[in-house]
Amino acid sequence: MFDWLDHLMQLLVTNVFGLSMQSRTGASVHFFFYDTIKIIILLGVMIFAISYIRSYFPPERTKRILTRFSGVTGNIMASLLGSVTPFCSCSSVPLFIGFVEAGIPLGVTFSFLITSPIVNEAAFAILIGSFGVKIATIYVVAGTILGVLGGLVIGKMKMEDQIEEYVKQIKMGETEIQQLTTQDRIAFAKGQVVDIVKRVWVYILIGVGIGAFIHGYAPAELLAKYAGPQNPFAVIVAVVLGVPLYSNALGTIPIAEALINKGVGFGTAMAFMMATTALSLPEMIILRKVIKPRLIASFVVVTSIGIIIIGYLFNFLV
User: Fold this and answer.
1) Alpha-carbon span 131 to 209, nearest angstrom
2) What is the pLDDT of residues 66-122, one digit of tens each?
3) Does the N terminus or the C terminus of the chain have fewer Cβ atoms within 10 A?
4) Which distant-in-sequence residues (6+ apart) come within 8 Å of 78 by Cβ?
5) 103: left (phi over 0), alpha (psi -120 to 50) or beta
6) Residues 227-275 pLDDT 10s
7) Burial class (CB in 10 A: 0-12, 13-18, 19+), 220
């Protein structure tokens, strides 16, 4: 898909910068410019397309849809809606309060909260560009299943008493859902492209920069030895390292791509990415405003175990 860009960046490296593509510096410079431009292009296209679809699912409508389903069906619907309505940590509290106020079961709520940061249009776009449609689709399916099963397990724990009392007493009321025209939806999608790219470009540059350094200079033999598929503890270590970090999929995918190119297990790199995006420390701090430490700990443990299992499956299947 991006052969033209690869060729153009090779010309840039050799003719403009005067570097050899066989040198470490040349390989790093090529990786940086190629991945940055590729990611920006894919982001623009995918964010526009998915945002147009997402204009049909504002938070109020999402809440109303989820109130119609119960049991496993509720978890499945919550996880599917989470994949097309990504939220950031700053919006997790009002969403959580709105779901509780609407009477949506706790497990269903967590299915949404688990899937939403892991699966989004931006991550899907970059995954397609980095690993192809097949791997990107597997990742989306795995993230959605993680949300369903994680929510089911948390729901079975019967931890409704771990919600802060004031949350149960809040009455947010109904918000009128705007009726948008096609032009309104196109304008919304364009606005989302600009807004998201403005918010994440720093993460992209940092992530691609780290990935470029790994691509050019990291010792492949060492990484393959300690983080390759043959190391039985590599996935667990990746998740433990990823949980306390703060980033998003856009910043971690280029790093994962570079690590995989160096021989790191695919599942190990994906597990690190999922842990970093789904269990970021700032999100935990914000969620503490509405749920108690025991529920937060259960959320982290259940999600971490699910990510570890997915990581090992990726290493085995890919």
Assistant:
1) 18
2) 878 878 998 998 888 877 765 554 555 667 777 777 778 889 989 988 888 777 666
3) N
4) 66, 104, 108, 109, 111, 112, 115, 147, 151
5) left
6) 777 788 888 888 887 776 655 566 677 777 787 877 888 888 888 888 8
7) middle
